[in-house]
Amino acid sequence: MLAIEAAALRKTYAGLFRREGQQALAGLDLAVPRGAAFGLLGPNGAGKTTFIKTLLGVVRPTSGVVRVLGGAPDDRAVRARIGYLPERLHLPHAWTPVAFLASVARLKRLSMTEAALLRDLARVGLVDSAQRRIGGFSKGMKQRLGLAAALLGAPDLLVLDEPTDGIDPLGRAEIRRLLTEERARGVTLFLNSHLLSETERVCDRIGILAGGRLIREGALEALCGSATRFRVRFAPGCDPAALLPLGFVARDAEGAFTCDAASPEDLNALLDRARARGALLVELARDMRDLEDVLAEALGARDGPEAAAAGGGGPGGGPSDDPGGGAGPARAPARSAGASP
Amino acid sequence: MTTVLAVALDLIREAASRRWFLALGAGITLLLGVAGFTLRMDVVDGALAATRLFGQVLPTDIRSVDVALRPIFRAAAYVIFYGGLGFGVLACADFAPSLLAPGRIEHLLALPVQRWELLAGTFLGVLGLAMAGALYGAGGLTLLLAVKTGVWTLRPVLAALLASVTFAALYGGMLAASVFARSAALSAATGGALFLAGIVAGYRERLATFFEPGAPRALFRAVTSLLPRVSTLADTSADLAASAPVEALDLASQLAGIAVFGLAAVAFGIWRFEQKDF
Prior knowledge:
The complex is a heterodimer of chains A (341) and B (278). Chain A is α/β, with parallel strands linked by helices. Chain A contains eleven helices and 13 strands. In chain A, strands 5-6-7-3-8-9 form a six-stranded mixed beta sheet, sandwiched between helices. In chain A, strands 11-12-10-13 form a four-stranded antiparallel beta sheet. Chain A has a three-stranded antiparallel beta sheet with strand order 2-1-4, covered by helices on one side. In chain A, 43% of the residues are buried. With 278 residues, chain B is α+β, with helices and mostly antiparallel strands. Helix content of chain B is 75%, strand content 6%. In chain B, strands 1, 2, 3 and 4 form a four-stranded antiparallel beta sheet that branches. In chain B, β1 and β2 form a beta hairpin. The mean pLDDT of chain B is 90. Chains A and B meet through α2 and α3 of A and α1 and α5 of B.
């Protein structure tokens, strides 16, 4: 079952005096399974916000198909099952948070008592400010209130645009805990954030958007993890100089090394040789790259051939330098990349 | 319809927290309060014998009290009509631009509401605000004078309702303009232009004689035929308040004209709103 499905999605903003409009989405294909936590990444102007607005029916696509929770975004019943937090939520300054949530609840056709609204405020850590005016709220408090509004009515899909923007580190941890609770309930999470570390912590699937197309999509582990490179840690006392000829490259002075092995057999043989030289294995894990590296590589791979071919490749026309094996350049459709959550 | 009402009520709640409307409410209350405490009207056998304001006797002839009140009601009707329209154009100019503000409109459109419901609710909310203001001002004045003179009439209230309906029609134009370009200044300018052009349109027959017969006069008539007859409605409102005869057919025709203008403007705005990306 898919929560979000987009096929050959295009959006061109027509200009008043320009013959050729501005293309924001250039044939985007994406499938997000229900229950996934999907993070959308990309540089400014990549089309992320346009895509989110298309999911909500705020922007109508020029061509292509988009389906959300099995229906059209224009369908009122579909939108009733979506919770949305915009990047810069405009809030009525003179209202209290309870009045704002009550208004959203009315528009969502939910009958909620004040006690229920206070519980929702407590969930995002705002219950102590329930009777204060929103105008006096900090940016982080406004963001929390927006999140509380998005969570009203227990939606099946949460679309969050920069949900932790302006929130302090402890608050971010609270928001992550909240999102984890929602995921445990079965909610599909669609997150757009410039904070890569947040995306990395919350999401299990990642999509990288550039030039209006998805250029990478897949499970986080598949995108960031290497299939052939491993991190190992040996007990103190091992000799890095003796391990280097075997292929163990020291990462720090605490006994951490990286090594390359094409198969489990090769890896075990390598470790046996290290043990034979007196190294005692205490830790073994797949080498994971930062999301920042993955993003930079994906964007570099996309821009490189384009620059060389002077536009011959088009948006999303990156080469198949798949680092993780499971995930790769997301050509249409992108759903097959990586492991399902 | 529930959503339309919810949007309208939210708009009224938002207005209640704005300085403009708080000032209007306070101003009307202050005027009524001062008049209530300082105005004294002596009525003897149905005739207004003397009127005192701040203890000073106002020079008036002794005449039937309902006749004596007519000029007051007429003046009040004009003040409510033109003053209310002017105030409304300024005070309500940013309701629609605020509704369409980035960060707010996406949030609203992502909720299970239809686009037309947002605009219809905004229009209904402003109509409700205009009616509430008119009823409070005109109703308060009528009640005050009724208590002091014993003359009970609903005509000034009806006149004020006519003013609020006229304003709602102008607001339809302001709303449509805001959908095309999200700007409070443009909205206010549209309202102001319709207000002034509507005054001209009300006197179009007389003013047409200033134009050369032929194309210029025909053009003037054609342009003004599309505009709401603001000044005609103001005169009718004053006549209603002052118990002057008002032809029912004329009143119905004027009401129909203003309703058609207002609804057409709102429909035009909704048509554009339905197509627009945010």
